[in-house]
Amino acid sequence: MQRHQEILSVAVALAVWAGTANGAPPDPDDDMAEAPAPVTWQVVETRHHGSDTRGLAAVVFGAVRERGHSEPASLRVDYFDGQTTVRVNAAGLKPGPFAVAVKYSLDGGRFVAATWQPSADGSDLELSGDRAIAFLGELYGRSELRLAVVRPLSVPFVVTFAIDGTEQALRPLAERYHWSSGPAISDAGR
User: Fold this and answer.
1) Packed helices 166-176 and 130-139: angle between N→C axes, nearest 10 degrees
2) Which residues touch 108 (CB under 8 Å, ≥6 apart)?
3) Domain 2-183, what fold?
4) Which of 28-37, 73-82, 98-107, 146-155 has the least mean pLDDT?
5) For 122, which DSSP code?
6) Burial, 155: exposed, middle or buried (Cβ in 10 Å; 0-12, 13-18, 19+)?
7) Nearest-5° angle of CA 176, CA 63, CA 66?
8) Which member of 21, 38, 88, 162 lies 3.0 to 4.6 Å from 125 by CB, making a disulfide possible if both were Cys?
9) What is the pLDDT of residues 131-166, one digit of tens each?
10) Looking at the DSSP assignment, which residues form a beta bridge with residue 21?
C-alpha cells in the first residue's frame, strides 16, 4: 500500500511537471517572448504515507537506457522524520535486496564510484542523511547527472537527468531543513 501511495505522489509531481512543460507558447507581442528555460526540478509539498508527516520534495525526471530501450526515471529528494533522502526510481531498476554497483558522472565527466543502497522494498536506489546532502551539494552548478547501475547478472544501464537549476530548486528544502553538511547554498557552483 505504501509503495502505491508513493507512486501516487510521484504521479502528482509528474502531472505538475507535464502541465508546466506543456504550457502555452509565449505571446510574441510580450517583451519576454524568449523561449522559457527547460523545466527540470519540481518542488511539491507532500505527505509521507507511512508516518503521515508532511514535507517538501523535489523531483526531476529523466530517462534510463538499457539494451537500446529508453524508459522514464525519477530522482526525488525528500525530508521526512528528520532525514533527507535521495531516491532514484526507474522502470526495470528493481535492485531487490542485492548490492549494486553505482557510478555517477556530472556534466560528461568521468564516472565516480558511489555507495547507493536498495530501498526497504527493493524497488529504488537511495542515499540518506549526510551522504544525501553531500551528494546534492555536488549537483549545484551542474547541468547533467548520469548514474550507471550494474545489477547482478545483468548489463549496466545508465540513468540520465537534466539537473539545471539544482541550487535554486533545492533552496526551499535546504533552508527549511537546515542542511548543514555539504556546501552552503550561497557557495554553490563556485
Assistant:
1) 150
2) 144, 146
3) Immunoglobulin-like (2.60.40)
4) 28-37
5) S
6) exposed
7) 135
8) 88
9) 999 999 999 999 999 998 876 677 777 899 999 999
10) none
